[in-house]
Amino acid sequence: MGIFNFSQKKKEAPNIKDMVWMNRSAKLGGCLKLIQEQKDVAVVAWFSKTQEEFHHFLNEQHGLDIEIHLAQTIISTKISNIKLILLEHFPLRNKEENLILNLNPTEVVVLNSLDEPLFEVFGSEEIIRLMKNLGMKEDEMIEHPMISKSIVRAQQKLEQKVTYENSANSSKEWFERNGSI
Question: Which residues of the chain are modeled with pLDDT < 70?
């Protein structure tokens, strides 16, 4: 075997299932329900503010004992071959894909709410208005491959605009420090 292995395929990330709620409160409730239904999962946040918020909600308010990992410090051996629940998307697609590839989960679910900065940058107020007009309740969740593809395109668009990334403690702070579309 030589130094280079050209026949080996590039490792592909598993499909990402996006679950989207109208607001953060509904997302928290959806997260609680999902975690109570699942046994072998790893829960990961991109930002420390998200980690703190979900730790407080799940463990202190609801008496669970869930470790919420921070994406930047997680060790891949803790996650490999189990379901990964991301509490949010990272604004830049490449960084998110690299994490998922390194962790090697069996499945990836990302929890989203339309009032998060990633969605607000792309006009989520109109989507919320449309959903309400169609009779959707605030605590209902939507998911569809078209939604996931739209999120990927939004992340890729941001990636083209951000030449140097400034770190942040929250999604909101990330957009303030790195600019938006």
Answer: 1-11, 13, 77-78, 180-181
pLDDT the model gives residue 13: 67
| Tokens 């999962």 -> residue | 41
Q: Tell me whether residue 34 is in a domain.
A: yes
Which pTM value belongs to this model? 0.89
Q: Of 150, 40, 156, 160, give the one whose Cα is nearest residue 105.
A: 40
Residue 41 pairs in a beta bridge with 83
Per-residue buried b or exposed e for 19-40, using 16+ beta carbons within 10 Å of the residue's own CB: bbbbeeebbbebbbebbeeeee
Structural domain span for residue 48:
16-178
Residue corresponding to tokens 């929890």: 111
Instruction: Read off the tokens for 76.
Output: 């891949």
